[in-house]
Every structure is written in C-alpha cells, then in structure tokens.
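Researcher: Let's do a round of design. I'm pasting the structure tokens now; please hold your answer until I've finished.
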C-alpha cells in the first residue's frame, strides 16, 4: 500500500509539474523579426501649419528572418492605411495575409511616413490560425522615397515584434 501511495504521489507530482510547464509556455511571448518593403500612395491636404495632413496606403512583402523559431510563415503580404493629421499624430491599420489567406490585424501609431521615422503596431487578432492572437511590433523606416505624384516607396529593415496565441495569459 505504501508503494502505491508513493507511486501515485510521484505521478501526481510529475503531472502537476508538466501541466505547470505547459501553462508557463502559454504565458511566454513568441518573438519575430524581419523586413518590410512597400509601395503605395500618399494623398495630402493643406492645413493651417506648414505641414500637410496625409492619407497613406502601402502594400508589399513582410519577410520574416526567423519563421521556424516563431512558428510564423516565411512572408506575409502586408497592407496598411494611415492618417497623419499634419500635427504629429499618426494612426492607421494594417493587415498581414499569409499564403493560405489567414490574416493578422494591427492598429498602428507613429510618426509621419519618412526616412528614420518609427511606427508601432498592436496586434488585435486574426483569422484562421491567427484567430485570437495578440501582440505588438515596431519598425523604423530605413528609407522612404516619394515622387511628385505621391507614389511612395519604403523599406524597414528592423521589423521586430512578439505575439501570443489565443488562450494564453496576459
């Protein structure tokens, strides 16, 4: 009987430790990094200051440098639309679509779309395998080039972020 109690106790202790280990892994953030090359269009409107308000639409490839480690695909088609009020406030939305058609949604905050400026995103959910995902990411524009007609080309070489899947603890 004593042996049965010891075996049962050891089994329960191991099971509890394994379950605790699973809970801990769910609490952990998964990190990712990559680059985003995008092209789009900026439409401006004069304001009472020297800076114009603008609406910017961009799309391009978000290529990840550590997909195996993060469990994410090699690349997403990344699309964003943003608004710059001409007074330093920038907001927007982004959608990343993988090859299967599943998407990740983000809310954007940041500075005017220019070389050296920073953008940050809060991941607010997704569809398919990204349903319920949350997290955050940021980038700094390595370069932004704009034509007189408002066509914009940009590249960010330092996209860095983290995410958690649905069912994880905050």
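Researcher: That's everything. Go ahead.
Model: Designed sequence:
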């Amino acid at each position: 009987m004593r042996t049965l109690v010891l075996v049962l106790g050891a089994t329960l202790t191991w099971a509890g430790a394994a379950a605790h280990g699973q809970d801990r892994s769910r609490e952990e953030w998964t990190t990712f990094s990559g680059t985003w090359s995008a092209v789009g269009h900026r439409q401006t409107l004069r304001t009472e200051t020297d800076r114009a308000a603008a609406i910017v639409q961009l799309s391009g490839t978000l290529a990840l440098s550590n997909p195996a480690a993060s469990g994410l695909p090699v690349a997403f088609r990344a699309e964003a639309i943003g608004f710059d009020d001409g007074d330093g406030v920038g907001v927007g939305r982004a959608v990343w679509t993988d090859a299967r058609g599943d998407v990740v949604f983000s809310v954007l905050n940041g500075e005017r779309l220019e070389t050296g400026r920073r953008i940050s995103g809060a991941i607010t959910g997704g569809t398919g395998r990204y349903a319920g995902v949350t997290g955050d990411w940021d980038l700094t524009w390595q370069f932004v080039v704009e034509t007189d007609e408002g066509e914009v080309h940009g590249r960010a070489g330092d996209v860095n972020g983290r995410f958690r899947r649905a069912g994880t603890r905050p």
